Automatic annotation (TrEMBL):
InterPro entries listed in its UniProt record: RNaseH-like_sf, Tnp_DDE_dom, Transpos_IS1380
NCBIfam families: transpos_IS1380
Protein name as annotated: Transposase DDE domain-containing protein
SUPFAM superfamilies according to UniProt: Ribonuclease H-like
Pfam families: DDE_Tnp_1_4 (PF13701)
The organism of origin for this protein: Paralimibaculum aggregatum
Residue intervals of the Transposase DDE domain: 17-448
């Protein structure tokens, strides 16, 4: 590999192109970056006080005063690297000279460079893996969401719980063959709210049931939205698929005052209750889908009481048998609206896909289970910061963009650093997004800041 000088340019000088000899290629890595849009994420982070508050909670196991990089700077470098598409520490040696990354990290990194790959590896696999730090990381997504809700209190909260797979291609600790996903994987569990924010997640071995450990993940979230903790919330709703049709979960949600709609598997007794609804009408079948609904009260042996069950029967053209689904709920809505409310949980699956494709949070390549659990939590924090920007500070022109589009068209904005005595000027390319978009986003971010604090006399 060619030698690189501290300014980021090859010592052999610029390259020439044969098709046009007037064109030269100069490699000025310390003054040019492809990730100019991250400056907006850092501004949002500062407005909400996210990484500063997180660094105050995480215990720093280092002793002495010779640490070159502050813990807050290491956390920022870890999160913003993921936002830009660098999902592990392999690119840290190059990013440490990136002008945008150095400015995002702040402190001594602005002049001396950000952390190296080895320093970032120690941060993620050693500093954050003790049980007390891992527990704090698991709480941080909820704390960050609370910081947003303190500024914009919601009146309605809807939670969606679902599991997913993180395929592995080695012998990572905890990985196992999962029959449902038909792959060797780890098996994380997620809870999202209706805004797409990730409330809490947990990494689990690959061969556990989809609902394994649901209490440890869900209970802290329910506590944060209790009437005492969040009095502004007047409606609390919960959705999940058939893997979470657990009697203890029904009892908990009812005791905490949550409305719920949870799919349950069919059995012979349930099918007997709707047998009259599964008969086709006389004549030729129509060329469109025919849907029928009914509801009734049903009590399984393991349930503490009878509960309302909504059934949907669908006749599809060209199919001999109808499609049947059952939803257990404590809502008093009409049957069609209960099913519509439940079907909206598909957005949770979309949020998981965005995390997989935009943030690469399935990239869990460490051998130790604790290290991969840390990586998942760091991906969750990066995901939330990206989603906060989308839901809180995007203009109408880009508010429907996916996280992948925001990364490719906003984050990946070319920028050139021109440093003066007092200021650092980042000259951004205007080909993808004009100045008006950046100005509008910055205006929305500044509206989230609290009123300036005035000095009080002693």
């Amino acid at each position: 590999m060619a030698a690189v000088n501290p300014a980021g340019e090859e010592e052999t000088g610029p390259l020439r192109l044969q098709f046009d000899r007037t064109v030269k290629l100069a490699f000025c890595g310390s003054s040019i970056s492809s990730d100019g849009g991250l400056l907006l994420h850092r501004e949002l982070d500062d407005a909400l006080g996210l990484t500063d508050a997180a660094a105050d909670l995480i215990a720093d196991p280092r002793v002495g005063k010779n640490g070159r990089h502050h813990l807050c700077g290491l956390l920022r470098q870890s999160l913003f690297s993921r936002l830009a598409g660098y999902e592990d520490v392999n690119d840290a040696d190059r990013l440490r000279r990136d002008p945008v990354m150095r400015q995002l990290v702040g402190g001594r990194a602005v002049k001396r460079g950000a952390a190296s790959a080895s320093a970032m590896g120690r941060f993620e696999t050693s500093m954050l893996t003790p049980p007390e730090n891992l527990a704090i990381l698991a709480d941080l997504p909820g704390r960050w969401i609370d910081a947003v809700h303190d500024r914009q209190p919601p009146k309605v909260v809807t939670l969606d719980m679902d599991s997913s797979e993180s395929p592995v291609h080695g012998d990572q600790e905890g990985s196992a063959r999962n029959g449902h996903f038909q792959s060797k994987c780890l098996h994380p569990l997620f809870v999202f709210n209706q805004f797409g924010d990730l409330e809490r997640c947990a990494l689990r071995p690959g061969n556990v049931h989809s609902a394994h450990g649901w209490e440890d993940v869900l209970n802290p979230v329910l506590a944060r939205y209790s009437a005492k903790a969040r009095p502004s919330v007047t409606r609390r709703r919960f959705r999940a698929d058939a893997a979470f049709a657990i009697p203890a979960l029904f009892d908990l949600l009812e005791a905490e005052g949550w409305d719920y709609a949870i799919r349950i598997k069919g059995n012979s007794k349930l099918h007997d209750r709707i047998s009259w609804l599964t008969k086709r009408g006389p004549g030729r079948p129509p060329h469109h889908v025919v849907r029928r609904y009914t509801s009734f009260h049903y009590r399984a042996k393991s349930w503490s009481k009878a509960r309302r069950v909504v059934a949907k029967v669908e006749f599809h053209p060209g199919e001999l048998f109808p499609r049947i689904g059952f939803i257990v709920t404590n809502r008093s809505l009409p049957n069609e609206r209960v099913l519509s409310f439940y079907n909206d949980r598909g957005t949770a699956e979309q949020h998981i896909k965005e995390g997989k494709y935009a943030l690469k949070w399935t990239r869990l390549s460490c051998m130790r289970f604790e290290a991969n659990a840390v990586r998942l939590q760091l991906h969750a924090l990066a995901y939330n910061l990206a989603n906060f920007l989308r839901t809180l500070a995007t203009l109408e022109a880009i508010e429907t963009w996916s996280l992948t589009s925001l990364r490719e068209r906003l984050v990946k904005t070319g920028v050139r650093l021109v440093r003066h005595a007092r200021y650092a000027v980042f000259q951004l390319a205007e080909a993808a997004l004009p100045r008006e978009v950046f100005a509008g986003v910055l205006g929305l971010i500044n509206s989230l800041r609290g009123p300036p604090q005035t000095a009080t006399s002693a």
